[in-house]
Each structure stands twice: as structure tokens, then as C-alpha cells.
Amino acid sequence: MAARKILIDTDPGIDDAMAIFYALASPELDVVGLTTIFGNSDTETCTVNALRLLEIAGRTDIPVARGALRPLAMDFRGPADFVHGVDGQGDTFLPAPTTQRRANTDAARFIVETVMASPGEITLVPIGPLTNVALAMLLEPRLCDALAEIVLMGGAAFVDGNASPAAEANILNDPEAADIVFGATCSVVMCGLDVTERTLMSTERLNSIGEFDNDRARLLHKILPFYMDFYHRNNGLDGIYIHDSATISYLLAPQHFRTISHPVRVDCGHSFSRGKTLAARSASDHHVPWIGRPATTICTAIDADAVIALELNRLEM
Ligand code: RIB
Ligand code: CA
Prior knowledge:
This protein is an alpha/beta fold. The chain has helices at 14-24, 43-56, 81-84, 107-117, 131-139, 143-146, 169-172, 175-182, 193-196, 203-209, 215-235, 245-252, 304-316; strands spanning 4-10, 29-36, 64-65, 122-126, 149-153, 188-191, 200-202, 239-241, 257-262, 264-266, 277-279, 296-302. Helices cover 37% and strands 18% of the residues. The radius of gyration is 18 Å and the shape is globular. Bound molecules: alpha-D-ribofuranose and calcium ion (CA). The site of alpha-D-ribofuranose has 15 residues, from helix 1 and helix 7.
């Protein structure tokens, strides 16, 4: 079977790096491009990180398109340097990549051009704030018809947020964009905190990555300690939550996930619950402002042991 073509929209980011390497090591997937966005760091830093990750993986054939510098309707809330380091890569301050395979267009246009050139073939995998994806939808109204699917990391349907008690970080960084994407007419799969905070990779297993004999694993072994330290101090965890890789696991092994389908709205107000993803759970909830919204496939449960084993297996390859 032909590999599934995916376009990853990302804000690397330590867990983004894991997800990108996981995808690149999976023969079932064909990564046709990376588009970048602010989030864990500013957009330019995330772009440099994306280029470096591809260089380390020996995949400088994959183009990188730099994305929006700010959310649709507000200023950027600022980098998550306390989680991912000032450089977005665990304060490792790695050398700049020498190959600069930047697309000669911005991320939204790159998404439109790539998807429209291969109708029905491209799956979008956003693992950062959804600004670029929303901009691409606004730019090309036929985009959703031409997309195979969107499988995204973001939101918290039936659990608390992580960037605020109400909101998950990717959604809080651009609620207006997220509400556009959850209203899209194509198939949207939401891998949110409902499953990612159930997927704890232990310190022991993370340390095993340091023994894998490839450059991708060696890079992860360098950048992971900062992220592990954050989770230890902040959440008292002996390990880390695996957020962004949930999208890749879903694409490779959807049988390890349980899902339900409900329309999702994002709170775009300017109060405490800004950025909260609200799923209409029952038919009686299907009233304004959910009415007429397409259903999102929401991941609600995960076989964490199975997806962690799969990811480690691929990172070792
Ligand atoms: O909430 C988790 C998300 O926020 C992940 O995408 C992580 O990389 C951060 O951006
Ligand atoms: Ca991310």
C-alpha cells in the first residue's frame, strides 16, 4: 500500500521533535512538508528548529514553509520557554542548520498549493496553534473538499486544560483559528489532553532513547532533559506526557484509540474560559452555537502502553 501523505504544521518544540522523527521513521507515512507556527517559541525560531530536525534526520528534501507570526485576532501570548527552553529545544542552543530548504511561499499558501495539487491525498497534521490551517481555509474555500483528513493535537474535551484550567496550549494560542478548523467540513480528528495526558512515557523509557544508535535519537536524548525537568517540577511526574506524537500514533494505529463524534466549539470570549474546547455531548446540546456544525472525531481513550511501544520502536529504527 502507498504511504499516506502527511503535511505537519508544527511549533518545534521538544514533543514536536519526537512526533516529527516518529513520522519520518514510519514507512506507512510520507512527510511531504513541514509548515511552522509560533507556540513553543516564536515562528522564526520554530522554523530554524524544523530545518535542523530535517537535517539531522537526513531529510533535507522535505520543504519547510514559515507560517504566521501572530494569531488571527490577538498578539502572540509569548513562548513556552519554561517548558521547551528559550530555543524551543531544551536550551541546547544547537548550531544553525546549514541547509535552508525553505519553501518560497508562506505556510498558508504552501498548504493550499500542496493540498490542491493532490486532491484527496493529503492529511494535515497540526501539532501547534491552528493559525496557518485557518488561514489556508480562508484563502482557499475548496481546501476542505480537497483534504483527506485533519488529525490534530489540541484541545481538552472532557478534561481540564494545561495552559489554563479551561484551555489546552495550542488552542489558547489562537482560539479564533481553532474555532474555524473545528467548523471545517472535512474529517477532523482531535487528539487532545483527554488522551495525551493518559500517555506517560516514563523516565526509564525516555533514558532508553539515549541508547538508540541513530542521530534522531541522539538529538532527542540531548533535548529531552529540559522537558522532563519541567514535568517533574510542575506535575510531579516521573516521565513526560506524549502530546504531539498522539497524532502519528492515531494515523499508524487507530485501533489503539477510542473515539466519539460531536461538534466542537471553541470559547473565543475574553474571560476565564477563553480557548476551552466545548463538545456538544448529547443531541440536546446540539443547539446554537453548535447547530449545523460538523462532528469532530474526539479521541477519548488510548492504549498508552501500545502507542508508547510503537513510538519507541520507530525511534530506534
Ligand atoms: O498542550 C500540548 C501542546 O502544546 C503540544 O503541541 C506542545 O508542543 C505544546 O505546543
Ligand atoms: Ca507542538
